[in-house]
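re the bet — no i am not wrong, look at it urself. input seq straight from the record:
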Amino acid sequence: MVENELIANISRVRGFDLNLLLIFEAIYAHKSVSKAAQLLCISPSAVSQSLTKLRSFYADPLFVREGRGLVVTTVAENLHNQLSTGFSHLLGSMDYFKDTTTKSKFVIHSTPYAAMRILPKVTAQILQDKINCEVSHINTDALLDTIEDALTYRKADIVFDTKPYYNFSTVAVPYLTERAVPVCRKDHPRLGTSLTAEEMKFETSTFLNAGSENIKRTQTGIMDYLGDRNFFFSSSSILVNTAIVENSDIVSFIPVWFAEKFASSFNIKMLECNFCPEPVTLYMTYNKASLKNQHFVELLEAFNKCKEY
């Protein structure tokens, strides 16, 4: 509905030079063509020509000379009243990147796990630094957009992903490194404190469904060491896989941070293993153009203070 109204309004003013409204407001403010020209850094003749176009469009003189100044007509007064609030808001919006008093809203695009891993510390840092902004998180799982689409079409200000996206208009930096560890439920009938390739032959596993090449490389390394595992359950969620483990005799590989943080909550234990899986790197990607926004720069500093790489 809103988009249809916007399209209708654009069609209605098609062919009209919106710069004329800026000139109109300048003349209205100073009641003088020459002062309006000085304000806009254009010639008085250019202002006069624009005023002629406005008079033709509205079929009204708009400003009438009286003595050494101009007096507005009732049409000009009504036009100014209609424009004043919306026009001031428009001009303020155009200065968005320089206005440090306006509250900025930033969208972070990541998986739920990455958000849980990163955002709590960052939001605490933002509050501590008193950055005037609002942060919104969108699950990667809920979007079909690629990193490129999310950044190019400004659907996200910062994207966290295990795959870096390099482009002339973006910045991609390593932000976080995660290492996986095998876990099972605490009262597993066969496994004690360790896991060997021989023991894994008699166990079933969960599988993390992820399209990331980095995660697949880690999974391949685990497979090379433990052999072809018997996968019973798969999910794209680390949380779900862990919940399955605590209620069965299944073995799963999950991030060390998650295992240490929630071992007691999920009734699981970490298993020692002679094999150390290749760690997975999480990258932070954002548009270079965002650095023009002072609030974004402050937000970026807060993220960097919490960086773990």
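see?? The chain has a mean pLDDT of 86. told u. also Residues 74-94 form the longest helix (21 residues). so pay up
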